[in-house]
Specification:
Strand content: 25-35%
Low-confidence stretches: none
Number of helices: 3
Distance between the termini: 18 Å
Order of helices and strands: EHHEEEEEH
Strand order of the largest sheet: 1-2-3-4-5-6
Structural class: alpha+beta
Helix content: 10-25%
Radius of gyration: 14 Å
Oligomer: single chain
Shape: globular
Length: about 140
């Protein structure tokens, strides 16, 4: 299987209205998991041109991961500062894995994608700024 990254985006440089429903639900799930409280609501209420320095989530880079042969979406991954990432089954808030301190692991149900995901991350264009170890 060959996977590739598509739709590279920096969500917190876009108005929330431009996000997909899946991105919105996944970021809300991450905010709940991390106890970031009203951070998303505060971001949504911001001015049109905020000073991104004040937003904890500003370095978030998001990608869709697709099966290169079928074009079917497999995962969506949100990469944050300090080697943290969250992976979801595409279009859902089902936890597929993630990274802490740069060590990326997929949950058992998604483990069949590990080797292909490692290759997709290395070949990503544009490159994801966060270094990830896919061991």
């Amino acid at each position: 299987m060959t996977l590739r990254y598509t739709n590279h985006r920096r969500l917190f440089e876009l108005p929330i209205g431009a996000w997909s429903a899946a991105d919105r639900a996944q970021i809300e799930a991450i905010c709940q998991l991390e106890s970031w409280g009203d951070l998303l609501a505060a971001y949504e209420a911001r001015e049109d041109t905020p000073d991104l320095e004040e937003w904890e989530l500003r370095p978030c880079e998001s990608v869709d991961v697709v099966d290169a042969d079928s074009g079917e979406p497999v995962l969506q991954i949100h990469f944050f500062d300090f080697g943290t990432a969250y992976a979801f089954k595409a279009g859902t808030i089902e936890d597929a894995g993630g990274a802490t301190q740069h060590g990326f692991e997929l949950n058992a149900d998604f483990d069949q994608y590990s080797a292909a995901l490692r290759a997709a991350h290395r070949q990503a264009d544009p490159k994801i700024k966060q270094h990830m170890d896919f061991d």
